[in-house]
Write a structure and sequence with these properties.
Largest sheet: 2 strands, antiparallel
Order of helices and strands: HEEHHH
Number of strands: 2
CATH architecture: Roll
Number of helices: 4
CATH superfamily: HIV Type 1 Reverse Transcriptase, subunit A, domain 1
Shape: extended
Length: 100
């Protein structure tokens, strides 16, 4: 499944190339030789920085979803009974920090 890239201004194209280079240098992304390509979208955040997004809607349309039951919240909370320690994780750019 291949899609065409979206048109963007020269300034946005340069910004996208800079973001791609930064992510490649940090080992977040790499070269792809797969059969599918999804277009990128640059979105301005409230603080003025740019969020690099990939438009995967076409890929999502053809993805076969796994079927499984979600755990009941009361059973999950019961599993914490007697626990003394609880913790949370706070990721900066968390999407990139959890390897799949």
């Amino acid at each position: 499944m291949k899609q065409y890239s979206r048109r963007m201004s020269l300034a946005k194209k340069e910004e996208a190339e800079c973001l791609v280079k930064e992510m490649m240098d940090n080992g977040i992304i790499g070269e792809s030789s797969g059969p599918s390509v999804s277009p990128i979208v640059l979105v301005k955040k409230k603080n003025g920085s740019t969020r690099f997004c990939v438009d995967c809607r076409k890929l999502n349309e053809i993805t076969i979803k796994d079927s499984y039951l979600l755990p009941r919240i009361d059973e999950t909370l019961d599993a914490f009974n007697g626990s003394q320690w609880f913790w949370t994780l706070d990721f900066k750019s968390g999407y990139w920090q959890v390897e799949i």
